[in-house]
Design a protein that fits this description.
By secondary structure, the protein is of the alpha+beta class. Helices cover about 40% and strands about 15% of the residues. The radius of gyration is 15 Å and the shape is globular. The relative contact order is 0.20. The protein binds zinc ion (ZN).
Length: about 160
C-alpha cells in the first residue's frame, strides 16, 4: 500500500504541471502526417479549443502515424500532444480503450473502465489534475473524442457539447 505524504503529493503535482506546460509549449506530433487515412475535427465551444486530428491507420488497424493541428488552451494542446505520443504505434482497439478509460476517469464516471492489459496510464495521469477544475475537463477530453470519431470513421466534427 502506497501512502504519499503531503510533500510528495505536492511534488507530484508540480511534476505534472511541468509536464502539461512542456507539452503545451512544444506539442509532439504537431502537423499533418504525409499519409492520412482517418481524420476528425474536434471543437470545444466553451473554451474555443479547435483541433484537426490526422491518422494513418494500416489495414490491420495499427496506427502507423498520427498528427494534429489546431489552436486552444494549454490543457487541450497538452492533452492532444500526450494523446498522440501515447497512441502512436498502437492498435486502434487499444487506443480506443485508452480513450474510453481516460474520458471516464476525467469526467468522474462511475464506470471508469479498464486500461487495456499490459498498459498503464503513465504520463496521462498528469491530465487527471483537471478533475479539480470542472470547466477544463472538456479541454482535456476533446482530443480523445476526436480520436474516437476519427477511428470510427464518423465524419461529423467531434464536439464536447
Ligand atoms: Zn480549453
Amino acid at each position: 500500500m502506497m501512502t504519499d505524504s503531503k510533500a510528495d503529493t505536492n511534488e507530484l503535482r508540480d511534476l505534472y504541471r511541468e509536464l502539461i506546460l512542456d507539452h503545451a509549449r512544444s506539442p509532439r506530433h504537431f502537423g499533418r502526417p504525409p499519409t492520412v487515412t482517418h481524420s476528425a475535427d474536434g471543437i470545444n465551444p466553451l473554451c474555443g479549443d479547435k483541433l484537426h486530428l490526422y491518422l494513418e491507420v494500416a489495414d490491420g488497424g495499427h496506427i502507423d502515424d498520427i498528427g494534429f493541428e489546431g489552436t486552444g488552451c494549454a490543457i487541450s494542446m497538452a492533452s492532444a500532444s500526450l494523446m498522440t505520443e501515447t497512441v502512436a504505434g498502437m492498435d486502434s482497439s487499444t487506443a480506443l480503450g485508452y480513450s474510453a478509460t481516460l474520458t471516464a476517469r476525467l469526467t468522474g464516471s462511475e464506470n471508469a473502465g479498464e486500461i487495456p492489459a499490459g498498459f498503464s496510464l503513465g504520463k496521462l495521469r498528469a491530465l487527471e489534475g483537471v478533475r479539480e477544475f470542472p470547466s477544463r475537463v472538456k479541454c482535456a477530453t476533446l482530443p480523445w473524442h476526436a480520436l474516437r470519431a476519427a477511428l470510427s470513421a464518423d465524419t461529423r466534427p467531434a464536439s464536447t457539447e
